[in-house]
Amino acid sequence: MAANLFETTVGLERLLDYQLKRHSLLASNVSNSNTPGYRTQDLVFSDSLRTASRKMNATAQGHFGAARTPKALEFVKVKRGPVTNIDGNDGRIEREMARLTANKIRYNSS
Fold first, then answer.
1. Which residues contact 51 (CB under 8 A, 6 or more apart)?
2. CA spacing 20 to 30 A to 17: which of 26, 49, 74, 89?
3. How many other CB atoms sit within 10 Å of the CB of residue 14?
4. 41-43 and 77-79 beta bridge pairing
5. Would the pTM count as exceeding 0.90?
6. What's the average model confidence in pLDDT over 33-44?
7. More confident position, 7 or 87
């Protein structure tokens, strides 16, 4: 049972790391919402998960386990959609604040 608890804790740590890094990017998007030419960024969980799964190591024949280091997960940053503002900025403060709030709720519930 202790091994399962440890694996759960490591998974939770990675989830919290992901949400914390995403929160930082979303906060940057909010603060740069009026910066000409700024392109909003985000972390995409599915892309991050795909990157992590490529780094999995076989620990036994027919068995795959996550990489041994807790910090092995690299998060994938992406730029968002097309530029919609005349100044070359694709950010909208309302949309970014909604994403920031949703991410905060997920972090707190985790």
1. 73, 74, 76
2. 89
3. 19
4. antiparallel
5. no
6. 87
7. 87
